[in-house]
């Protein structure tokens, strides 16, 4: 019999150890508790302060939304019972559903919704766009609020359904009045789960309990919209960054769900009859390479252009262990391939890496050989593999590389530093976006290049911002399509980020878990343990 590869040997040993260590009565028999391992562990809890996926995942459990996106990407009322729109689309009136309550028992009021929108609009790229188009946002009565626009904004309900980055969740007015620059440290929402703050142990687990007072909508769940009926009493979000350990725990029945198993362990899980794999995110993910536009060398446009010629998407995906069947061989689209907004504009001649062209551009940019600091989140197998692969390609292309290792939570803090590399700053990092992150010119958070108040990386380009704004102001879908191509072509000149490979991964769960759906982001209402 041929020897097992190293990871398979580790996985087999870990599975046996986990199974022996687990009491027989505990192996998958507690039907009231769902145990999940997500891409990242919970590092902070303010959904406005951070764009990290772990905060968004936490937010969907604890909070609710005014509108939510269904499986077709259309905004549907969630906390809103009804809404009215003036014929010219410049005035909107929203009425909340009756009987909504926060976890502390206080009723959800229009004042809570308005305060939450205002705080969110200070930080999120979609919120800022809506706020810039707003003449007034005011409370009418306890259940009703009114939005009046100062200029056209064709995607009001879509904006209020913002599901990712700094997603729009409704929190009590007393918390929403916290300055957006100050983190909220209390997670009181009106959502289907209650956060058990006393049981949260960073680096170990976060715990949520079913909200018995939650009032789900009557419709069936559809995407992130519809009725949120919780069918377990307790959910434990467990930190388990080691791929082999997580896979072994799933096989042993110690956990119930893994959002993104390492590609290396997928073949082992496929052979286990107690495990099922499915595509949580059918469109897939895109690796984004984010350069820092403030400090050398990538404050120079030609240095950023050089990066384009050093990125080999297929090499990145192969290094991450993504199976060929789950790879998109090449995708230049800023709004992902396989979507209605896929575009090739601006990407001519970029399919193949060209290190010689990169060297020429670096010389023209005045690159002086200084260290390029490429932050590496080693606790994410995909981020780590792609970062190391691209760092090697950049080294071959003439850049001097420094690749400091850290966990993702630390990276999300360090990337906010604007200092030079020598003072603890940075030049590059990798993040992985889903289709909701990259959906269109309005919602794509890293495409925004506002000069003031942007996200880490801080791109600045007035023309790209003008094109983006014209896209969401245009009510005609055919004209928006033409503008979209112009947006992408301009993005390839500015390079707020670089597409570094699109792929799909599978999620894994025990076969006794039912109700999981292809929601793109992990949500656990409607999920039960048989």
Automatic annotation (TrEMBL):
SUPFAM superfamilies: Periplasmic binding protein-like II. GO terms for cellular component: ATP-binding cassette (ABC) transporter complex; outer membrane-bounded periplasmic space. InterPro entries: Peptide/Ni-bd, SBP_5, SBP_5_dom. Residues 75-446 form the Solute-binding protein family domain. Pfam families: SBP_bac_5. Residues 1-26 form the signal peptide. Belongs to the bacterial solute-binding protein 5 family. This is ABC transporter substrate-binding protein. It comes from Roseicella aquatilis. The lineage of its organism: Bacteria, Pseudomonadati, Pseudomonadota, Alphaproteobacteria, Acetobacterales.
């Amino acid at each position: 019999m041929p020897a097992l590869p190293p990871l398979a040997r580790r996985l087999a040993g870990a599975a046996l150890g986990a199974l022996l260590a687990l009491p027989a009565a505990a192996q998958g028999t507690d039907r009231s508790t769902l145990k999940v391992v997500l891409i990242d562990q919970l590092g902070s809890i303010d959904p406005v302060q951070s764009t990290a996926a772990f905060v968004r995942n936490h937010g969907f459990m604890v909070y609710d939304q005014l509108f939510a996106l269904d499986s077709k990407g259309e905004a549907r009322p969630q906390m809103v019972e009804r809404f009215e729109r003036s014929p010219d689309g410049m005035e909107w009136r929203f009425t909340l559903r009756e009987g909504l309550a926060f976890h502390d028992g206080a009723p959800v009021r229009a004042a809570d919704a308005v305060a939450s929108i205002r705080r969110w609009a200070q930080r999120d790229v979609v919120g800022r766009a809506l706020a810039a188009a707003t003449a007034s946002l005011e409370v009418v009565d306890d259940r009703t609020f009114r939005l009046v626009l100062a200029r056209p904004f064709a995607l009001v309900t879509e904006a209020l359904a913002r599901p990712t980055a700094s997603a729009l969740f409704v929190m009590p007015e007393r918390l929403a009045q916290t300055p957006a620059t100050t983190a909220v440290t209390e997670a009181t929402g009106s959502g289907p789960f209650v956060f058990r703050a006393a049981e949260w142990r960073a680096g170990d687990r976060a715990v949520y309990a079913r909200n018995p007072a939650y009032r789900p909508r009557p419709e069936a769940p559809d995407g992130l919209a519809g009725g949120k009926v919780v069918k377990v009493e307790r959910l434990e979000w467990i930190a388990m960054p080691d791929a082999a350990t997580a896979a072994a725990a799933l096989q042993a029945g110690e956990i119930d769900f893994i959002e993104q198993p390492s590609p290396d362990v997928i073949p082992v899980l496929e052979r286990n009859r107690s495990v099922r794999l499915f595509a949580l995110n059918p469109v897939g993910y895109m690796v984004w390479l984010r350069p820092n536009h403030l400090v050398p060398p990538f404050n120079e446009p030609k240095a950023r252009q050089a990066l384009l010629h050093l990125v080999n998407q297929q090499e990145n995906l192969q290094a991450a262990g993504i199976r060929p069947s789950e790879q998109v061989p090449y995708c230049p689209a800023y709004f992902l391939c396989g979507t209605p907004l896929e575009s090739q504009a601006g990407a001519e001649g970029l399919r193949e890496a060209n290190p010689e062209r990169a060297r020429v551009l670096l010389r023209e940019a005045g690159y002086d050989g200084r260290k390029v600091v490429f932050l590496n989140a080693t606790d994410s197998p995909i981020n780590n593999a792609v970062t190391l692969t691209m760092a090697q390609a950049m080294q071959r292309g003439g850049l001097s590389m420094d690749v400091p290792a850290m966990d993702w939570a630390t990276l999300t803090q360090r990337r906010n530093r604007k200092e030079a590399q020598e003072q603890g700053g940075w030049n590059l990092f990798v993040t992985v976006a889903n289709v909701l992150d990259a959906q269109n010119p309005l919602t794509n958070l890293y495409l925004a290049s506002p000069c003031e108040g942007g996200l880490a990386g801080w791109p600045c380009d007035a023309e790209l911002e003008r094109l983006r704004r014209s896209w969401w102001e245009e009510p005609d879908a055919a004209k928006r399509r033409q503008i979209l191509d112009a947006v992408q072509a301009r993005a390839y000149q500015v390079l707020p980020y670089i597409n570094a490979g699109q792929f799909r991964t599978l999620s894994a769960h025990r076969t006794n878990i039912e109700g999981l759906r292809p929601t793109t982001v992990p949500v656990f209402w409607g999920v039960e343990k048989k």
